[in-house]
Amino acid sequence: MTQYSQAVRTAQAYYNSDDAENFYSRLWGGEDIHIGLYESASEAVLDASHRTVERMCDALGPALDGASVLDIGGGYGGSARHVAARHNATVVSLNLSEVQNERARRKNAERGLDDRVRVVDGDFENIPFDDGYFDIVWSQDAMLHSGNRERVLDEVARVLAPGGTFIFTDPMQADDCPDGVLQPVLDRIQLDTMGSPGFYTRALERRGFTRRAFEDHTRQIPRHYGGIHDTLVEREDELRDSAISTAYIDNMKKGLQHWVEAGKAGHLAWGIMVFDKR
After folding, report:
1. Which of 234, 237, 250, 259 has an alpha carbon 20 to 30 Å from 203's alpha carbon atom?
2. CATH pick for 6-277 out of 3.20.20.450, 3.40.50.2300, 3.40.50.150, 3.40.1190.20
3. Which of 190, 258, 244 minimizes the C-alpha distance to 17?
C-alpha cells in the first residue's frame, strides 16, 4: 500500500471531513471546487469555475479530442466529465478524497459516463500508471497541497507521453513575493511553501518541457475568494443548519479573507499554464 506524505494525509483528512464535504458540495454544486474566471462580481461560482474548464479546453484545442487524459487532484470530477462528454476523451480522475470520489462516481453514472471517466483513489506524488500512459495531464488548484511538488512533477513527466501536454492551474505566490508575507495563507493550508510561475517553469524545463503559455488571471484571486467569503456570510445560517460546524465556518471566513488580502497586495499569482513535453 502506498504511504502518503504528511502533506497529502493532511489534505486527505480535510477533504474527507463532513465539514469540508458539506461546504464545498453546497457552494459549488458538487461538480468541482476550482477557482473561476469571473465576468462580473455577482457571477455564481459554479458558472465561473465552469468557464475555467472551458478555457483550458480551448487552450488545448484539437489535441484534446479523443485523447487519454489524467486529471490529478480531480475532486468531484466535473472537469473530467466535461472533457469526456465534449471531447470524446477517456479520462482518469485521480483524487485522494474517498468521499469526493464516491460523489464523482455517482455523478458519472447519472451522466452515463462510466465508460469514459474512471475515478481512482490515489495521490499525485505516486501516480499508479505506467510510463507514457497519457496524452494530456490536467490539474486544477491541487498541487499547492503537496509538500513535495518536485515529486509531483517527476510523476507527471513520467506518465505523460512524448509530445504530450501538461495543463494546470495552481494558486501560487508571485515571483517577486516578499519573504514572510504569505504566512497567514500558508498556515491556513498547513504547508511551508507555495509554488510560483517561475518555479513551475524552471522545474518543468529541467524535465524536458517547453512552456507554451501562461495566461495570467491573477486578478481573479481576490474576486474568487472574496465572492466565496461573501456567499458564506450570506448563507451562514443555512450552512450552520446543514451539519457544518461553527468552528469550520468561522475559520473559513478568516482563511478566505487572508487569500483576498494577499491577492489584493499582489503577493499571489494564478492562471492557466501550458507545457509541452519534448
Report:
1. 259
2. 3.40.50.150
3. 244
